[in-house]
Amino acid sequence: MLYLLCESKARSMIDSFLHYIQYRKNYSSYTVLSYHNDIKQFQNFLLNTYQLTLNQASSTHIKDWIVSLKQENKSNSSVNRKLSSLKSFYKYLSRENKITTNPTNGVFSLKMPQKLPVFFRENEIDSAIGETKDTENDFANQRKTIILELLYQTGMRRAELLGLKDSDFNFFSLTLLVRGKGNKERIIPISQELKNKVKQYLIIKEENFGQTPTFIVTDKGEAAYPNFIYRIVKDSMGKVSTQDKRSPHVMRHSFASTLLNNGADINAVKELLGHANLSATQVYTHTSFEQLKENYRKAHPRK
Predict the structure, then answer these.
(1) Cβ–Cβ contacts within 10 Å for residue 298, how many?
(2) Residue 284 catalytic?
(3) Whole-angstrom Cα distance, residue 132 to residue 192?
(4) Is 143 an active-site residue?
(5) Predicted confidence pLDDT, tens digits, the chain (303 residues)
(6) Residue 275 annotated in active site
(7) Which of 21, 160, 271, 285 is deepest in the core (most CB within 10 A)?
(8) 2-95 maps to CATH 1.20.58
(9) Domain spans in the chain, listed from the N-terminal domain onward
(10) Which is the catalytic residue, given 157, 179, 205, 270?
């Protein structure tokens, strides 16, 4: 009976936290789902290992969970993301006076090796976008082109692309309204060429499905989902690039690297990417410098 009461209390805590981050913090539905999955995973660990509920956890239990995740060969970045979910959850509970002690205090993230972001070369992206093959479904071909163009020309995140509406495009001013993390809005310029491609895509989409609530839709006219975008990018870039990682986020890296390599101001790139801090953008300057060194080695006779 006592366990059932504790379990009911823990369930109420989770629901309250998820409601807070979704409606007060304006986190995307994908982020909310990720937080929920991480917290539930820790909850199951507590139950199966210690027969405890979330409100009975201590820092020792969280550290044991981290060890168990590493034993499952989870990467440090994956573990840190899960730990970040727990920290946010227990910080909320502490602030709302739902717990007396925050069990994540004294629990630190795992060290991460410094990795430079990978990116596609401009000619690889051009090849992927310019690839033309006979297809029975011309809409699918148009959609693939639009997805690749938008990711590369705007640097938007996958979740931001999924959240686009037809009305977010302003063809008169050649701009695009993007809703980023925390529902923060930013305006990104688009080219005349991209405008023309978007307008053509909208015509074909309406012919097939009429008015749709989201800009990118599936073959059934339904709202696209994260893995749908990932597969299109992975398959398209896999035909033209030897890069092992071929995700939508690599397109975002490519956007930033291309701008910096061509002399764009880093603060402008920061605003276009929707970064809260300049430090998140500065990592791309290292990538650009590596590209500069490669060009030097190829071109200078005394390399």
Answers:
(1) 8
(2) yes
(3) 21
(4) no
(5) 444 445 677 788 999 999 999 998 888 888 899 999 999 999 999 999 999 989 889 999 999 999 999 999 999 989 999 999 999 999 999 999 989 999 999 999 988 776 667 888 888 888 888 765 544 458 999 999 999 999 999 999 999 999 999 999 999 999 999 998 878 899 999 999 999 999 999 999 999 999 999 999 999 999 999 999 999 999 999 888 888 888 999 999 888 888 888 888 888 888 888 888 877 777 776 655 555 555 545 554 555
(6) yes
(7) 160
(8) no
(9) 2-95, 122-299
(10) 157
Strand positions, DSSP E, the chain: 169-170, 175-179, 185-189
Respond yes or no: is residue 36 known to be catalytic.
no
Distance of CA 172 to the CA centre of its chain: 29
Contacts of 152 (CB under 8 A, 6+ apart): 125, 129, 251, 254, 255, 258
pLDDT of residue 297: 57
Rounded to whole angstroms, how far apart are CA atoms 175 and 181? 19
Both structure tokens of 155:
């640097």
Give pLDDT tens digits for 151-189: 999 999 999 999 999 999 999 999 999 998 878 899 999
β-pair partners for 179: 185
**Residue 76 near residue 110 (C-beta atoms within 8 A):** yes
- State the Cα angle at 52 between 47 and 55, rounded to 5°: 120
Q: Is 201 a catalytic residue?
A: no
- 131, 145 in Cβ contact below 8 A? no
3-state secondary structure (DSSP) of residue 12: helix
**The CATH homologous superfamily of the domain defined by 122-299:** Intergrase catalytic core (1.10.443.10)
Measured between alpha carbons, how far is 5 from 56 in angstroms, rounded to an integer?
Answer: 12
What is the Cα–Cα distance from 242 to 132, expressed in whole angstroms? 20
Does 246 qualify as catalytic in the annotation?
no
